[in-house]
Protein backbone atom coordinates (compact mmCIF):
# COMPACT_ATOMS: atom_id res chain seq x y z
CA UNK A 1 0.00 0.00 0.00
CA UNK A 2 1.60 3.22 -1.24
CA UNK A 3 1.40 5.71 1.61
CA UNK A 4 3.20 8.49 -0.27
CA UNK A 5 1.98 9.31 -3.75
CA UNK A 6 3.34 11.46 -6.50
CA UNK A 7 0.72 11.34 -9.19
CA UNK A 8 2.63 13.21 -11.86
CA UNK A 9 5.34 11.00 -13.32
CA UNK A 10 6.79 13.85 -15.34
CA UNK A 11 6.88 17.63 -15.56
CA UNK A 12 8.29 19.84 -18.30
CA UNK A 13 9.00 23.48 -17.53
CA UNK A 14 10.77 26.32 -19.25
CA UNK A 15 13.97 27.69 -17.82
CA UNK A 16 13.25 30.62 -15.51
CA UNK A 17 9.68 29.57 -14.79
CA UNK A 18 8.32 27.93 -11.65
CA UNK A 19 8.29 24.16 -11.18
CA UNK A 20 5.59 22.84 -8.86
CA UNK A 21 5.80 19.24 -7.72
CA UNK A 22 3.00 17.67 -5.74
CA UNK A 23 2.88 14.89 -3.19
CA UNK A 24 0.02 13.33 -1.24
CA UNK A 25 0.17 11.02 1.75
CA UNK A 26 -2.33 8.81 3.49
CA UNK A 27 -0.69 8.09 6.85
CA UNK A 28 -1.69 10.77 9.36
CA UNK A 29 1.15 9.62 11.64
CA UNK A 30 3.79 11.07 9.31
CA UNK A 31 5.37 14.07 10.97
CA UNK A 32 8.43 14.81 8.83
CA UNK A 33 8.59 15.25 5.09
CA UNK A 34 11.58 15.49 2.77
CA UNK A 35 12.30 16.08 -0.88
CA UNK A 36 15.20 14.39 -2.63
CA UNK A 37 16.62 14.93 -6.07
CA UNK A 38 18.16 12.08 -8.04
CA UNK A 39 20.31 12.11 -11.13
CA UNK A 40 20.87 8.90 -13.10
CA UNK A 41 23.61 6.67 -11.64
CA UNK A 42 23.69 8.69 -8.42
CA UNK A 43 22.06 8.32 -5.04
CA UNK A 44 19.27 10.67 -3.91
CA UNK A 45 20.45 14.07 -2.73
CA UNK A 46 18.59 15.81 0.06
CA UNK A 47 16.93 19.07 -0.99
CA UNK A 48 14.63 20.38 1.68
CA UNK A 49 12.44 19.14 4.51
CA UNK A 50 9.53 20.25 6.62
CA UNK A 51 8.21 19.26 10.00
CA UNK A 52 4.50 18.76 10.50
CA UNK A 53 4.41 21.69 12.92
CA UNK A 54 5.16 24.07 10.04
CA UNK A 55 3.34 24.87 6.84
CA UNK A 56 6.21 26.33 4.87
CA UNK A 57 9.95 26.03 4.65
CA UNK A 58 12.16 27.93 2.26
CA UNK A 59 15.75 27.41 1.21
CA UNK A 60 16.99 29.52 -1.66
CA UNK A 61 15.10 28.62 -4.82
CA UNK A 62 13.28 25.77 -3.08
CA UNK A 63 10.13 26.13 -1.00
CA UNK A 64 8.08 23.30 0.46
CA UNK A 65 4.48 23.83 1.50
CA UNK A 66 2.59 21.47 3.77
CA UNK A 67 -1.19 21.26 4.06
CA UNK A 68 -1.82 18.79 6.86
CA UNK A 69 -5.59 18.83 6.61
CA UNK A 70 -5.37 17.84 2.97
CA UNK A 71 -2.37 15.53 3.57
CA UNK A 72 -0.64 17.30 0.73
CA UNK A 73 2.72 18.88 0.21
CA UNK A 74 4.31 20.64 -2.71
CA UNK A 75 7.78 21.68 -3.77
CA UNK A 76 8.23 24.96 -5.63
CA UNK A 77 11.42 25.64 -7.55
CA UNK A 78 11.83 29.24 -8.64
CA UNK A 79 13.40 30.00 -11.04
CA UNK A 80 13.89 26.63 -12.68
CA UNK A 81 17.33 25.98 -14.15
CA UNK A 82 18.57 23.33 -16.60
CA UNK A 83 20.54 21.68 -13.79
CA UNK A 84 17.25 21.03 -12.00
CA UNK A 85 16.40 18.36 -14.56
CA UNK A 86 16.26 15.19 -12.46
CA UNK A 87 13.85 12.86 -10.70
CA UNK A 88 12.37 14.34 -7.53
CA UNK A 89 11.20 12.09 -4.72
CA UNK A 90 8.89 13.03 -1.90
CA UNK A 91 9.50 11.08 1.32
CA UNK A 92 7.92 10.90 4.76
CA UNK A 93 8.68 9.45 8.15
CA UNK A 94 6.69 8.83 11.31
CA UNK A 95 7.61 9.52 14.94
CA UNK A 96 10.09 7.02 16.40
CA UNK A 97 10.89 5.93 12.84
CA UNK A 98 13.44 8.58 12.06
CA UNK A 99 15.37 7.76 8.90
CA UNK A 100 12.95 5.04 7.85
CA UNK A 101 11.53 6.81 4.85
CA UNK A 102 8.47 6.05 2.75
CA UNK A 103 9.06 7.33 -0.76
CA UNK A 104 6.74 8.43 -3.50
CA UNK A 105 7.17 7.13 -7.02
CA UNK A 106 9.06 10.20 -8.16
CA UNK A 107 8.50 12.97 -10.71
CA UNK A 108 10.85 13.40 -13.66
CA UNK A 109 11.44 17.11 -14.18
CA UNK A 110 12.79 18.39 -17.48
CA UNK A 111 13.77 22.04 -17.68
CA UNK A 112 13.89 23.27 -21.25
CA UNK A 113 15.80 26.33 -22.50
CA UNK B 1 26.76 16.20 5.47
CA UNK B 2 27.92 12.60 5.59
CA UNK B 3 29.77 11.11 2.66
CA UNK B 4 28.67 7.57 1.94
CA UNK B 5 30.63 5.25 -0.32
CA UNK B 6 29.18 2.08 -1.73
CA UNK B 7 31.04 -0.74 -3.41
CA UNK B 8 30.62 -2.07 -6.02
CA UNK B 9 28.88 0.66 -8.00
CA UNK B 10 27.52 -1.95 -10.40
CA UNK B 11 27.75 -5.65 -11.06
CA UNK B 12 26.38 -8.33 -13.34
CA UNK B 13 25.87 -11.63 -11.57
CA UNK B 14 24.78 -15.14 -12.46
CA UNK B 15 21.54 -16.42 -10.98
CA UNK B 16 22.01 -18.56 -7.90
CA UNK B 17 25.07 -16.64 -6.72
CA UNK B 18 25.35 -14.04 -3.95
CA UNK B 19 26.69 -10.50 -3.92
CA UNK B 20 27.83 -8.48 -0.92
CA UNK B 21 27.51 -4.71 -1.09
CA UNK B 22 29.61 -2.56 1.21
CA UNK B 23 28.64 0.82 2.64
CA UNK B 24 31.18 3.07 4.32
CA UNK B 25 30.31 6.37 6.02
CA UNK B 26 32.95 9.01 6.66
CA UNK B 27 31.72 9.65 10.21
CA UNK B 28 30.04 7.72 12.97
CA UNK B 29 26.29 7.54 12.49
CA UNK B 30 23.53 6.27 14.68
CA UNK B 31 21.36 4.82 11.96
CA UNK B 32 22.07 2.98 8.74
CA UNK B 33 19.45 1.69 6.33
CA UNK B 34 19.29 -0.34 3.14
CA UNK B 35 16.85 0.45 0.32
CA UNK B 36 16.02 -1.13 -3.00
CA UNK B 37 14.86 0.62 -6.16
CA UNK B 38 13.46 -1.80 -8.69
CA UNK B 39 13.37 -0.70 -12.34
CA UNK B 40 10.89 2.11 -12.85
CA UNK B 41 9.83 2.09 -9.23
CA UNK B 42 10.39 4.05 -6.07
CA UNK B 43 12.75 3.34 -3.21
CA UNK B 44 11.64 0.67 -0.77
CA UNK B 45 13.20 0.17 2.66
CA UNK B 46 14.68 -3.29 3.10
CA UNK B 47 15.97 -3.08 6.66
CA UNK B 48 17.57 -1.05 9.41
CA UNK B 49 21.15 -2.10 10.09
CA UNK B 50 21.64 -2.17 13.85
CA UNK B 51 25.13 -1.90 15.27
CA UNK B 52 25.97 -4.93 17.34
CA UNK B 53 22.68 -6.71 16.83
CA UNK B 54 20.55 -8.28 14.15
CA UNK B 55 19.05 -6.05 11.47
CA UNK B 56 15.38 -5.13 11.59
CA UNK B 57 13.63 -6.14 8.37
CA UNK B 58 10.59 -4.58 6.74
CA UNK B 59 7.62 -6.61 5.67
CA UNK B 60 8.45 -8.70 2.64
CA UNK B 61 12.17 -8.91 3.31
CA UNK B 62 13.89 -11.71 5.23
CA UNK B 63 17.31 -12.26 6.70
CA UNK B 64 18.01 -15.42 4.73
CA UNK B 65 17.67 -13.51 1.46
CA UNK B 66 19.23 -10.22 2.57
CA UNK B 67 21.68 -10.81 5.43
CA UNK B 68 23.05 -7.56 6.81
CA UNK B 69 26.04 -6.85 9.00
CA UNK B 70 26.94 -3.71 10.90
CA UNK B 71 30.14 -4.28 12.86
CA UNK B 72 30.65 -0.63 13.82
CA UNK B 73 29.17 2.86 13.53
CA UNK B 74 30.64 3.61 10.10
CA UNK B 75 30.24 0.41 8.09
CA UNK B 76 27.56 -2.00 6.92
CA UNK B 77 27.14 -4.73 4.34
CA UNK B 78 24.10 -6.10 2.55
CA UNK B 79 24.25 -9.50 0.86
CA UNK B 80 21.79 -10.44 -1.83
CA UNK B 81 21.66 -14.23 -1.64
CA UNK B 82 20.73 -16.88 -4.18
CA UNK B 83 20.00 -14.22 -6.75
CA UNK B 84 17.34 -14.39 -9.44
CA UNK B 85 16.62 -11.91 -12.25
CA UNK B 86 13.91 -10.37 -10.03
CA UNK B 87 16.68 -9.12 -7.74
CA UNK B 88 17.95 -6.84 -10.49
CA UNK B 89 17.67 -3.42 -8.85
CA UNK B 90 19.59 -0.50 -7.48
CA UNK B 91 20.53 -1.05 -3.85
CA UNK B 92 21.20 2.01 -1.73
CA UNK B 93 22.41 2.54 1.77
CA UNK B 94 21.57 5.59 3.79
CA UNK B 95 22.66 7.00 7.10
CA UNK B 96 21.47 9.44 9.66
CA UNK B 97 21.79 10.56 13.20
CA UNK B 98 24.77 12.84 12.76
CA UNK B 99 24.71 15.74 15.13
CA UNK B 100 23.06 18.78 13.62
CA UNK B 101 21.41 16.98 10.72
CA UNK B 102 17.79 15.91 10.49
CA UNK B 103 17.94 14.37 7.05
CA UNK B 104 19.16 10.99 5.85
CA UNK B 105 22.03 10.83 3.37
CA UNK B 106 22.42 8.27 0.62
CA UNK B 107 25.23 6.48 -1.08
CA UNK B 108 25.47 6.47 -4.86
CA UNK B 109 23.85 3.06 -5.11
CA UNK B 110 24.83 -0.34 -6.48
CA UNK B 111 23.22 -1.28 -9.78
CA UNK B 112 22.79 -5.05 -9.80
CA UNK B 113 21.85 -7.04 -12.88
CA UNK B 114 21.18 -10.75 -12.49
CA UNK B 115 21.38 -12.86 -15.63
Helix proportion of chain A = under 10%
Cα end-to-end separation of chain B:
36 Å
Alpha-beta classification of chain A:
mainly beta
Radius of gyration of chain B from CA coordinates: 13 Å
Element order, helices and strands of chain A?
Answer: EEEEEEEEEEE
Compressed to H and E, one letter per element, the order of chain B equals: EEEEEEEEEEE
Q: Uncertain runs of chain B with pLDDT below 50, 5 residues or more? A: none
How much of the sequence lies in strands of chain B comes to: over 45%
Proportion of beta-strand residues of chain A: over 45%
Number of strands of chain B: 11
CA-based shape of chain A: globular
In terms of quaternary structure, the protein is heterodimer
Mean pLDDT of chain A: 94
Q: DSSP helix count of chain B?
A: 0
Count of DSSP helices of chain A? 0
Structural class of chain B: mainly beta
Low-confidence stretches of chain A: none
Integer-rounded radius of gyration of chain A: 13 Å
Task: Output mean pLDDT of chain B.
Answer: 92
Compact description:
Chain A is mainly β.
Helix and strand arrangement:
The complex is a heterodimer of chains A (113) and B (115).
Chain A: E1 4-5, E2 10-14, E3 19-25, E4 32-38, E5 45-51, E6 56-59, E7 62-67, E8 72-77, E9 86-93, E10 102-103, E11 107-112
Parallel strand pairs in A: 2-11
Antiparallel strand pairs in A: 1-3, 3-8, 4-5, 4-9, 6-7, 7-8, 9-10, 9-11
Chain B: E1 4-7, E2 10-13, E3 19-25, E4 31-37, E5 43-49, E6 56-57, E7 68-72, E8 75-80, E9 89-96, E10 105-106, E11 110-114
Parallel strand pairs in B: 2-11
Antiparallel strand pairs in B: 1-3, 3-8, 4-5, 4-9, 5-6, 7-8, 9-10, 9-11
Amino acid sequence: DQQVKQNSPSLSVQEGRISILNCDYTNSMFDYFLWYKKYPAEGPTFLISISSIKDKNEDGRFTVFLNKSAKHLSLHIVPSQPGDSAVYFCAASAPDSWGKLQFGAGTQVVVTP
Amino acid sequence: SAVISQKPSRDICQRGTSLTIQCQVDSQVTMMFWYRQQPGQSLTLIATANQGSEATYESGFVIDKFPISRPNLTFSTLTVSNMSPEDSSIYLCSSGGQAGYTEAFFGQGTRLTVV
